[in-house]
Design goal:
Elements lengths: L15 H25 L1 H4 L5 E3 L3 H19 L6 E2 L8 E2 L7 H6 L1 H7 L1 H28 L3 H12 L2 H6 L11 H11 L6 H39 L4 H25 L1 H9 L29 H7 L15 H18 L2 H20 L4 E4 L2 E6 L2 H4 L17 H18 L5 H15 L9 E3 L5 H4 L12 E4 L9 H11 L13 E3 L6 E3 L5 H12 L7 H14 L1 E7 L11 H12 L3 E3 L2 E5 L4
Parallel strand pairs: 7-10
Antiparallel strand pairs: 1-6, 2-3, 4-5, 8-9, 10-12, 11-12
Helix pairs in contact: 1-6, 1-7, 3-5, 3-6, 3-20, 5-6, 6-7, 6-9, 7-17, 9-10, 10-11, 10-15, 14-17, 14-18, 21-23
Protein name: DUF2079 domain-containing protein
Pfam families: DUF6311
InterPro entries: DUF6311
């Protein structure tokens, strides 16, 4: 274990035989990481254009749309941070949403070549692989000498329960490869004589991270700030911290300037642009980490398959801790052992890691502590901090994601010490090996659950829609597009990525204004037409329709400038089965008899 968080120097150059062994170890880690990435996403590889992630098909559809729209915007000279193609007529501020602009631009050729669903799968798989390799590289080249130690730490972090959970369609949170790069470049700012170049590099990396995972960047910055503050205040490290502070601050200033210039427009949109919102549409009490979840096992793991998984998370994509009892005990044992083995300087690093773990674990409990699903009356620090700007837009449960990399570091440091200084007794070595096996084997990930989703209608894929919508005009599926009915954005993504042209849709899956107390909400504020179609699709019953209802629906059609209403034979419902027949009868009662075109029903809306 290094005596400080220094990343400026790595292990000494290896002899030729040792270098060959190191290269073999690197290759083994790459192959294992690739195998795990493909294993976790294997359900989608069967047919990415047909398969969808069962527990989060709405987010998958959203990210597919973001890839298609981002590539289209860049290749057609449109604004990638704001669009009027969804949420007509107000548009959507993508700077306050997860726009993954860098991914959309970099992978635009692939999106045009193989389509958004397949590109989504490629990025998701690469995210997992790159996260493992980036952490392995940071550990093996800068923090530990043992390749085995680096492999254990890197693979654990990349395939920890939180990362596997967010692999359920979150292209932003699964991009964990950004974190070790940010850590590496931040500590590089201490190098004398290189602060300008290092500041520029970190500034560019910050801009990239913001465009892929702004919330993750924010959490990383907070965690590094806490770690550095605690480390620098430790008596054993105060002198070193004071010595490098001027150089570090100069580099950090350059980072702020470079990132500020690159992100000036997105940041303006984020904080002052149209369709911005404050806070979020999610309840921080619901989206907080249950204290018992830290000792629970995740559903997508060997332990979960054995029936030990729980439902302590608000949904299957937010199992942000779920380390299991075995790993918690092993982590404590590693920390205690490392503390006993360490000198005063090394204990400064351990003290900072421990403090960061406790702080972020407690913050993840949200405004009010929960234990095994039961709320307590015990207020938590997040109740105070959650009122601050920017913090009020974060989900407290995700703060627990900071804990996994720290556990990975402790595991790597422990293995590294045991490899360098083997235990004197065989029984001690066996106990450590058994402890690692008992703690980590139950957490081995299992593939994400997938299912078939309804196909995109031939009416869209054949381009027939262009005969019924003017260029840039408004088409809407029914039920109208929101998070639980993602078809509108799926259709639009297909049209954009296949160069068919543009049509706009009302609604959509996005975060925007209109929530309670001036906060954000998911999707637009419901209007009569969207409420009626949602009711019919959910319940299978045709709502009561009066003359007043028809007038309100006509007002909605004028507000959204809708030219054509479309009902597919099979509508994708992200949370439940949709009753297409009830939707068709409701639309017929409102618009008259439909016209059959290709494999859809359509209703033409006469100009106002």
């Amino acid at each position: 274990m290094p005596s400080s968080p220094s990343l400026a120097t790595g292990p000494a150059p290896a002899s030729p035989p040792r270098a060959a062994r190191a290269r073999r170890a690197d290759l083994i880690v790459v192959l294992v990481a690739l195998a795990l990435a493909v294993w976790v996403t294997s359900g989608l590889w069967r047919d990415p254009n047909v398969r969808t992630i069962t527990v989060n098909s709405s987010d998958q559809a959203l990210f597919e749309w973001l890839l298609a729209f981002g590539g289209h915007a860049v290749t057609h000279g449109e604004n990638p941070f704001f669009t009027y193609l969804i949420n007509v007529p107000d548009g959507v501020n993508l700077a306050v949403n997860t726009s993954i602009t860098v991914y959309a631009v970099v992978f635009a050729p692939l999106t045009y070549l193989i389509g958004p669903p397949a590109t989504f799968l490629v990025i998701l798989t690469l995210n997992l692989l790159a996260t493992a390799l980036a952490w392995y590289w940071l550990l093996s080249r800068h923090l530990v000498r043992s390749r085995l130690a680096a492999g254990v730490g890197g693979l654990f972090i990349a395939y920890s329960p939180g990362m596997v959970s967010h692999a359920n369609a979150h292209l932003n949170w699964s991009a964990g490869w950004l974190v070790p790069l940010l850590v590496w470049r931040l500590f590089a700012l201490r190098r004398p004589g290189h602060w300008l170049r290092d500041g520029v590099i970190l500034g560019v990396l910050v801009a990239v991270a913001f465009s892929i995972a702004a919330e993750g960047l924010f959490f990383t910055a907070l965690a590094l700030g806490v770690f550095l503050a605690v480390w620098a205040l430790h008596p054993a490290r105060r002198a070193e911290a004071r010595a490098v502070l001027p150089t570090f601050l100069r580099g950090l200033g350059v980072t702020a300037v470079v990132a500020g210039v690159l992100l000036a427009y997105p940041l303006w949109l984020h904080f002052a642009g149209p369709q911005r919102y404050h806070g979020t549409g999610f309840d921080p009490v619901i989206h907080s980490e249950d204290i018992a979840a830290f000792a629970a096992y995740p559903r997508r793991s060997l332990a979960g398959e054995a029936g030990l998984g729980t439902s302590l998370a608000p949904n299957p994509t937010e199992e942000n801790s779920f380390f299991g009892v075995g790993l918690l005990l092993l982590t404590v044992a590693c920390f205690v052992a490392l503390w006993r083995w360490a000198d005063a300087g090394r204990r400064a690093t351990l003290w900072a890691l421990g403090a960061t773990t406790v702080i972020f674990a407690v913050l993840s409990f949200g405004p009010v502590a929960k234990v095994d699903g039961r709320r307590t009356d015990l207020p938590m620090p997040f109740d105070l901090l959650g009122q601050l700007p920017v913090v009020n837009a974060a989900l407290p449960a995700r703060l627990a994601l900071v804990v996994a990399p720290i556990i990975g570091l402790l595991l790597a440091y422990t293995v590294d010490h045991l490899r360098a200084v083997p235990p004197r007794h065989r029984s001690t070595e066996l106990a450590w090996s058994l402890g690692f096996a008992v703690a980590l084997l139950p957490l081995l990930p299992t593939p994400l659950l997938t299912d078939e989703r309804e196909p995109i209608p031939r009416f869209i894929t054949a381009g027939t829609w262009k005969q019924y919508v003017s260029p840039g005009g408004v088409l809407t599926p029914v039920p109208l597009t929101v998070d639980i009915y993602p078809d509108g954005q799926r259709w639009q993504a297909y049209a954009l990525s296949h160069r068919q042209g543009e049509f706009a849709i009302p609604g959509g899956f996005f975060l925007g204004p209109g929530g309670p107390d001036g906060r954000g909400r998911i999707g637009p504020v419901p209007r009569t037409l969207s409420a009626l179609m949602d009711q019919a699709g959910r319940t299978g019953l045709v709502p009561i329709i009066t003359d007043g209802t028809v007038r309100e629906v006509q007002s909605d059609l004028r507000h959204w400038r809708i030219e054509t209403v479309v009902l597919a034979d099979a509508v994708h419902g992200a949370k439940f089965e949709v009753d297409e027949e009830a939707v068709r009868r409701t639309a017929t009662a409102l618009f008259g008899e439909p016209q059959r075109v290709d494999d859809v029903w359509i209703w033409r809306v006469p100009p106002a």
